[in-house]
Design brief:
This protein is mainly α. The protein is built from 12 helices and no strands.
Amino acid sequence: MSTDTLDTAAITKFAKEVRALSNAQYQTAGYKRILSMPLNQARARLYTLQKSHWNINRRDCWAFAQAHAPMDVKKLIWEHEEDELAGNKTRGVEDHYSLQVRQSATIGLTADDFRNEPLRAGTRTCIYAYLHLVNSGHWLKAVSVCAALEVSNSSEWVDGGGMSYRMGKQFEKHLGIPFDKQLNAREHAEVDVEHAHMLLQIARKHGTTPGALNWMMEGLVESWQLDHIWKGILADMMEEIPL
């Protein structure tokens, strides 16, 4: 059997496992609590503001992963982060942080609210943990730590839609905000399908050396473990607010 056939079989097996694990994420306690929790405006505001700190941390983590990665992967990350940091001029979409601020006017938040929101202890702990993950091993692990969250937000990997879509539908159900009016949620539900393709692009090119796919899987698993803990911490914060 040729090396190419062996590599193709290994990548196929890897992709199948990634799909199973990304779907399993939605069966964890943290995800279930967030996605079944009744919302009011105060809970939605807390969720949005604390998650904005987490979103900024995503940019930091991708920057560290890019720094560790070889040149061709640096380019892929650059293209991915352009949507996040600068928007998409072709489609006339602004950067994703600005989209979130604009969307959040629907729940009574302003740009000052985002600037002034303090980091809660649980948010800070998870942010520090993510920074450790992307700097604690092989560059393939660092990239996979970041890509895990694109995969679990992609409707091509996750049955029933990713987190942006599902949480957007929760805002629609409980707060009466149509999903199509949720600028940031709608944008992420679309672009993270494309962004999640990066994982397999990297696996096909760089996952052929001994141990490479193991590094990638380790990054995915550890990132998802931290992510469902983070969702549980968010749920704890939100449940402190009475309906």
